[in-house]
Specification:
Elements: E1 3-5, E2 8-10, H1 20-37, H2 43-52, H3 71-80, E3 95-99, E4 104-109, E5 114-120, E6 126-133, E7 136-140, E8 147-154, E9 159-166
Antiparallel strand pairs: 1-2, 3-4, 4-7, 5-6, 5-8, 8-9
Length: 167
C-alpha cells in the first residue's frame, strides 16, 4: 500500500516522527501507572513526579521542555512520594524488581533505609542472599540453574515476596 507522508511518497505509513502528539500517549500511560500505584495523588502531584524524574534534555528546552519521561523513575518516585511519612496502604506496591542484565536483578524498595533479599529455589533452599543499604540494590543470580525462584525481601517492618524466573 503506497501513501504520502509529509509530501513524500512512501510504501507504508509507519516511520520515525517526533512531537507532542507522540509523547502524549507515553506520558498518559506513565500517569496511569502512577495513579494505579498511588490513586490518592492529585493531578499536580502526578505532573510534578513525571517532570522531576524526566531525563535532562541536554539544553534544548525549546524542543524538549522537561526532558525525556521515564516510567520506571516516575513509578519509583511515586511510591516514595508521601505527605504522611512512611505509611503504605499496600506493602506489595513498595517492591519493584527489574532485570538488569541476563542474571542480575535490580531491587527497589520504596521508603527502605536497609533491607535483606534472599532468593529461594522451589525446594525452599536459600541460594542467594544480599543485604542492601538504602532503598535500591542488585541481586546476582548468575550460576543458578534456569527456573523459577522465590525472592523474599525483609525489613524491620515489612516482609515481601516475588516470583523470579531465571533463564
Amino acid at each position: 500500500m503506497a501513501g504520502c507522508y509529509a509530501g513524500i511518497d512512501v510504501d507504508n505509513y509507519w516511520g520515525a516522527s517526533e512531537g507532542t502528539s507522540l509523547s502524549c500517549p507515553q506520558v498518559a500511560g506513565i500517569a496511569l501507572l502512577i495513579l494505579q500505584a498511588r490513586p490518592e495523588l492529585t493531578p499536580s502531584m502526578v505532573r510534578d513526579i513525571i517532570t522531576s524524574t524526566a531525563t535532562a534534555a541536554n539544553g534544548d528546552t525549546y524542543k524538549v521542555k522537561y526532558g525525556y519521561a521515564s516510567a520506571l523513575r516516575a513509578l519509583k518516585a511515586a511510591l516514595e512520594y508521601s505527605s504522611v511519612g512512611s505509611i503504605f496502604k499496600d506493602d506489595n506496591l513498595r517492591l519493584i524488581v527489574t532485570p538488569s542484565g541476563r542474571y542480575n536483578y535490580n531491587l527497589f524498595l520504596a521508603g527502605a533505609s536497609r533491607f535483606n533479599a534472599t532468593l529461594y529455589n522451589m525446594s525452599g533452599c536459600a541460594v542467594r542472599s544480599v543485604a542492601i543499604d538504602g532503598d535500591e540494590g542488585s541481586l546476582d543470580a548468575s550460576n543458578l540453574a534456569s527456573g523459577i525462584y522465590v525472592l523474599e525481601v525483609k525489613t524491620d517492618n515489612a516482609h515481601l515476596t516475588r516470583k523470579i524466573v531465571v533463564k
